[in-house]
Amino acid sequence: MKRNAEAGHALPLVALALATLMGFGGMAADVGYWRYQERQQQSATDAAAIGGAQQLLRASCPNNGLATSAAQQDAADNSFTNGGSVSVVVNNPPSAGAFNGDQCAVMVQITTSNVPVFLTRLSGRSFMTTSTKAIARIVNDNNSCIFLLSSGSQTNFNGATVNAPGCSIAMNGTANFNGARITAAHIGYAGSTPNENGATFPMASPAAMPPVADPCPEILGCAALASGAPSTGNCISFNGNGFHGTLPPGCYSHLNLNGATVTMSGTYVLSGDTNFNGATITGTGVTLYVPAGSTAPNFNGVSAATMTPPTTGPYAGVLYYQVPSNTSGPNFNGTNVNLSGLVYCPACDVNFNGAQGGYLVLVLGSANFNGGTAKDFATPPAGQTLIRNVVLAQ
């Protein structure tokens, strides 16, 4: 029996098998491409959500217009420009999901309707639609306590004891740790290698890092003072030598509290010279504002000073604010100085000995923490730090 004629029967089966294999291969190639495109789009969506939320750090929440503008710009910078086949929808606050109604959260959804189809065009589809979503929100969880911003300076910890186990220390310059004991969650320097002779570091040791930026824009009260200073008009001169009583808030062109026992509350503009020598100060809800051209106050000779910032209002959390152009160095070196809140003097060299266990954030040019009593920095309260961050929440 001849079988030569039967050889042709297998060809259709082979062709069908090859077509099927090519179809699966084409689908695998297209799926791989779609997933690559989706990853690119998700990265752009994440960046857009973060960019939108970062703009809210410097504005009040909510602000959908500001968030939308920033988020769509970030999406465009990552090759997803709103319009045509690309839709970039921004909602502040989010309109659905776990963060629905969170006024400081930004939801971004990018939809692309022209993702090309290559080897599976035979299925009748030329394009696929890809949609990605991300939510970024502002949180208060920054545990930094000490910022030393002057890049060309040296901070002196010579013989000092600093206890800040729940905080980090960031220096744009370098430091002298000779004989010091520094307990901190992180210690970073952007300048030259510091002197660690005889120093001990029970937790983190100093490590090189990139320079850090001034955190003032991420602190609501600090940003408020930077954008709108309290009035320096109608300032008065007050000679309170031996004074006992409550010092009214306001603007002081000269303030002498030598030997005084005073209670303070409110905003004090120190537009001239200030003398606290021998004073006993109890301050609750206090903001001290030092404008350009003023002499920074000296707390070195106080008998005792316990001062806390306001907890509400536009300057909430800010105890001391000195404008960046004023380089006069305040002196907080008294042994009985106990401060809480933000101490902001980003261009100053500050003598400091005023940490006795309160939640304190120092933003200084450089500092001297020499010897004396231990400087105790409280661990920042979870979710209630002065400095705000943007995190990708979803």
Essential attributes:
single chain, 16-stranded parallel sheet
3D architecture notes:
This protein is of the alpha/beta class. It has 2 domains: 9-139, no CATH class; 144-384, no CATH class. The chain has 3 helices and 22 strands. The strands form 3 sheets. The chain has a 16-stranded parallel beta sheet that branches. A 4-stranded antiparallel beta sheet has the order 1-2-3-22, covered by helices on one side. Strands 5-7 form a two-stranded parallel sheet.
Determine the fraction of residues in helical runs and give it as a percent range.
10-25%
**Shape descriptor:** elongated
State the total count of DSSP E strands. Answer: 22
Q: How do the helices and strands follow one another from N- to C-terminus? A: HHEEEEEEEEEHEEEEEEEEEEEEE
Radius of gyration: 30 Å
Mean pLDDT: 88
Helical/strand content category: alpha/beta
Number of domains: 2
Distance between the termini: 72 Å
Strand content: 35-45%
Q: What is the makeup of the main sheet?
A: 16 strands, parallel
Q: Residue ranges: pLDDT <50 for 5 or more in a row?
A: none
Q: Please, how many helices?
A: 3
What is the secondary structure topology, with strand pairs?
Layout: H1 10-57, H2 64-77, E1 86-91, E2 105-116, E3 127-139, E4 144-148, E5 154-156, E6 161-171, E7 174-176, E8 181-189, E9 207-208, H3 220-227, E10 236-239, E11 244-247, E12 250-256, E13 261-275, E14 280-290, E15 304-307, E16 318-322, E17 331-332, E18 337-339, E19 341-352, E20 360-368, E21 375-376, E22 389-392
Parallel strand pairs: 4-6, 4-20, 5-7, 6-8, 6-21, 8-9, 10-12, 11-13, 12-13, 13-14, 14-15, 14-16, 15-18, 16-19, 17-19, 19-20
Antiparallel strand pairs: 1-2, 2-3, 3-22
Helix pairs in contact: 1-2
